[in-house]
Design a protein that fits this description.
Radius of gyration: 15 Å
CATH architecture: 2-Layer Sandwich
Shape: globular
Distance between the termini: 50 Å
CATH superfamily: START domain
Order of helices and strands: EHHEEEEEEH
CATH class: Alpha Beta
CATH topology: Alpha-D-Glucose-1,6-Bisphosphate, Chain A, domain 4
Strand content: 35-45%
Helix content: 10-25%
Number of strands: 7
Largest sheet: 7 strands, antiparallel
Length: about 140
């Protein structure tokens, strides 16, 4: 039986800034780990069929991008190196709202409800770190230079 999770947040940043934070390795290394004490390394080839690798200390997750529609959608597989389960799938949908950007993260295909709950415990602090990163003024990639 499969279990899924869904997290929704409104981030006080433009859709372009939020999308960039999900697709640029130098930004991902600032928030994409629930434990800020772990060394984080990210490689990402953000295109359909491209791969990514995230090393969170001794833990490694990797996958393939399934959908890439800037700046509104990213979908990718998710597989821990030490796990024998089938890959799960993550879908990140971004929508402009008055307050900034609505982020809807759906992570599907877990083997058990406990696995989904464990991943939710990881996504929540990561998204808190993303919100904190986006609260720091940065150039908007949607604005031409």
């Amino acid at each position: 039986m499969s279990a899924d999770l869904r997290v929704e947040r409104v981030l006080r940043a433009t859709i372009g800034k939020v999308y960039e934070a999900w697709t640029r390795p130098e930004l991902l290394t600032q928030w994409y780990c629930p434990n800020p004490k772990l060394e984080l390394r990210v490689e990402a080839d953000v295109r359909v069929g491209g791969g990514y690798v995230v090393e969170m200390g001794p833990h490694v997750v990797r996958g393939t991008y399934l959908e890439v529609e800037p700046p509104r959608l990213l979908a990718f597989t998710w597989k821990w190196d030490e796990d024998d389960e089938q890959p799960s799938e993550v879908r990140v949908e971004l929508t402009e709202v008055d307050e900034g950007t609505r982020l809807l993260l759906t992570h599907t295909g877990f083997a058990t409800p406990e696995d989904a709950a464990n991943h939710l415990q990881g996504w929540e602090p990561e998204l808190d770190r993303l919100a904190a990163l986006l609260s720091v003024p940065q150039p908007d990639p949607a604005v031409g230079t």
